[in-house]
Amino acid sequence: MQVLKFGGSSVATPDAIRSVASILQAKKTNEPLVVVVSALGKITDQLLQCGSLAATGNVTYKELIQSITQRHLDMARELVPVAIQSSILSFIIQQFNELEDICNSVYHLKELSDRTIARILSFGEQLSSHIVSTYLNTHGITNTWLDATKHIVTDSNYLKAVVNFPATNKSIQSVIPKQSDGLWIVPGFIASDEEGRITILGRGGSDYTAAIFAAALQASVLEIWTDVSGMMTADPREVKHAKVISRISYQEAMELSHFGAKVIYPPTLQPAMQLNIPVWIKNTFAPEDHGTIIESNIVHTKGTICGISSIANISLISLEGSGMIGIPGYSKLLFETLASCEINVILITQASSEHSICVGIEASIATKAKKALDKAFAYEINRGMVNPIVVEQDLSIIALVGDNMKNHAGTSGKMFGALGRNGINVRAISQGSSERNISAVIASADVKKAINVLHEEFFETTYKQVNVFIIGTGNVGSRLLAQIKQQQAYLQKNANIQLRVIGIANSRRMLFEEHGIDLNQLDRLDSAEPMDLQAFINRIQTMNLRNSVFVDVTASNSVANTYADLFLKSISVVACNKIACSSAYNNYQHLKGMATDRHTSFLFETNVGAGLPVIGTLNDLLRSGDAINEIHAVLSGTLNFVFNNYDGTRSFATVVKQAQDEGYTEPDPRLDLGGTDVMRKIMILAREAGARLEMEQIVNHSFMPASCMEGSVENFYSEMERQEAHFKKLYTEATANGKKLKFVANYKNGEAAVGLQQIDPQHDFYHLYGKDNIVLFYTNRYKDQPMVIKGAGAGAEVTASGVFADIIRAASV
Ligand SMILES: NC(=O)C1=CN([C@@H]2O[C@H](COP(=O)(O)OP(=O)(O)OC[C@H]3O[C@@H](n4cnc5c(N)ncnc54)[C@H](OP(=O)(O)O)[C@@H]3O)[C@@H](O)[C@H]2O)C=CC1
Ligand SMILES: N[C@@H](CC=O)C(=O)O
């Protein structure tokens, strides 16, 4: 014996009903089959609307009945051969005449009782089951239509009738023999009381009908045919990569369904559950898909959770006050008051301090709840024992569900860690001792992000999505975009990272694409909307995408000033712009602290040595317990290039211009030549090593004539030409001494200095070519021989690759 139920979408159109027929044909079983059908999709709501319109004196119920009639007639005409249509057509017309008579009475009396509603709603299943039965009979699938109202016996609670199981089981067993190969078509949702008055079985009613038949006949399986391929790990409208759960326990199915997975309404499956009859969710439109089997004793081999679910439109009601501590009765009064107002409590939390109790309820009844509770606690409120009830709005509940969470440490840690890293604030938490569900109340605006973050954390075996926003498309920024474009597919395949560039801007334009900008079409930026920095930041925040990373590839002060706002929303920042880290010490510390507090990343490896692993190495030394005692370094790629290439044959200004053209200088090259860039770098290293250093404290032995540093960049170049003798002298003197010129940065005992030095051939800095940098760390462990980091220290390609590495680091947290 098998029982199958086809929901409204499975019988909504002629094609859907043809699919039902194919499914039944493919069954080819010798067992008896009971097929329960719902009303044609959306008909139940329309029937209810007919009743409501009539009851409120709105005569348009007649037009609605007309259109519902037409839909059923059209359906029958398309499915049943013309020659034998007349009987089903006259049945439909007769049924709708009866419906119209009932609605006319409602219209005249302006009265719509529960009994009448049940009667009106019953037409939906009566009609659909007759159409399906007739269609099958006329297409070689012989069946018997069975009137559920004659066999499911209930009390007289018309809209949510309670089944009399002994009477119902007996009646069903008497009409459907266990040993047969018959097929019965049964209308779902409807029953009748002992006086034969129509009743309906409430929410999920057709599932309930099917479960009642399955239990009465001790079916081997109950199949629920619907329009999705089973219960999913998350709502597929929210999570693109949600997967079908192939097996799930009754309890897990209950938890998931309660939290919004509307595939089935498990309480209605209770009769089947009690007899351990497996419930199989199948897709009428993709019958080859496996679907979901709900049964007992499921052993999940993978993962601790089976699904993530949510409920929207929640309000949190808080009862709080020092007068509650240790006094029994507060929660009793709270829950009694809510119950007396028929307010359903969805979630409850109470801290062990007993200082507050917090309940989650449907938002639409929050005002009613507050009014009732303020009244119930008026005495305590007036005496200051508790505060007036606080209602928080615009909230939702998200929940992890899974039998395996039991006895499995770390699930909640993983859950809240992932939410925290994405700046999702948790307002209340609840976990029952069954440990099958961990629920968290969060802002509704964060739900999509939260579900995706959790899905990635617990299920995503394919990839983690990282959403990048880049400001700066110049020398370094353009190379970064080219590297990302080249590497996107590789990252997805080999590192499970789907790196999407969602926003790009320069000082003129900004471009956004929520599903990722096509990096082959970067010229779209030229015609995109005008750049507005605040609007750019607002967009990142309101998009509220998971794993967002902001990348600053400018040298702009105003861009650096936005980091704090980004950290507030737990958005990671990657910067090659040195301004933030070389700003006032308090600001640098504040930003780092914010990033830590918000569990987000603030990465700026390229601030020193471009793509060289200087800051990372320094931090590794510190983390492993070492201490930095001295730093000696050549930190300017530009100056190293200039002094490596200048020998007096070309003017000093020409060599500097070459460094700028090759992309080694700052956007403003005076920062390099004047030593500011090196001061920033040694200060950043000193700060990372623990020193509280400011720019003003660093001694700069500048070699530049003051006149070069006055006025514009143009003036800088022309003045360097005029001062050529000065540069030549520096070169000649060093060469005469058998030495090379290097612009060196030193840090020791909390003091730092930068300046040009003549380096002799034995020195570590002597053999430093091109635009290379070198850093020597003298530490407690590296006392005599320093830790040395050396290599290309400037240039767009290497800097971009350092920024890229930071993005991946931020993404991998
Ligand atoms: N070159 C190197 O070797 C290294 C560079 N860096 C750092 O990289 C950063 C970028 O350098 P580089 O690419 O050479 O500089 P560029 O001048 O080539 O590019 C700067 C980019 O920033 C944009 N920009 C400037 N101000 C703003 C603003 N307020 N709002 C939006 N966009 C802005 C510019 O826009 P627009 O195009 O409209 O002008 C341009 O696209 C600098 O901070 C530098 O210190 C760090 C390590 C090494
Ligand atoms: N202008 C800088 C680039 C890296 O920070 C340099 O020349 O080193």
Automatic annotation (TrEMBL):
Keywords: Amino-acid biosynthesis, ATP-binding, Kinase, Lysine biosynthesis, Metal-binding, Methionine biosynthesis, Multifunctional enzyme, NAD, NADP, Nucleotide-binding, Oxidoreductase, Sodium, Threonine biosynthesis, Transferase
GO molecular function term, any single one: aspartate kinase activity
Pathway annotation from the record: Amino-acid biosynthesis; L-methionine biosynthesis via de novo pathway; L-homoserine from L-aspartate: step 3/3; Amino-acid biosynthesis; L-lysine biosynthesis via DAP pathway; (S)-tetrahydrodipicolinate from L-aspartate: step 1/4; Amino-acid biosynthesis; L-threonine biosynthesis; L-threonine from L-aspartate: step 1/5; Amino-acid biosynthesis; L-methionine biosynthesis via de novo pathway; L-homoserine from L-aspartate: step 1/3
Reactions catalysed, as given in the entry: L-homoserine + NADP(+) = L-aspartate 4-semialdehyde + NADPH + H(+); L-aspartate + ATP = 4-phospho-L-aspartate + ADP; L-homoserine + NAD(+) = L-aspartate 4-semialdehyde + NADH + H(+)
Listed PANTHER family: HOMOSERINE DEHYDROGENASE, PTHR43070
Function in brief: Bifunctional aspartate kinase and homoserine dehydrogenase that catalyzes the first and the third steps toward the synthesis of lysine, methionine and threonine from aspartate.
Protein's name in the database: Aspartate kinase
Annotated source species: Flavisolibacter tropicus
Lineage of producing organism: Bacteria, Pseudomonadati, Bacteroidota, Chitinophagia, Chitinophagales
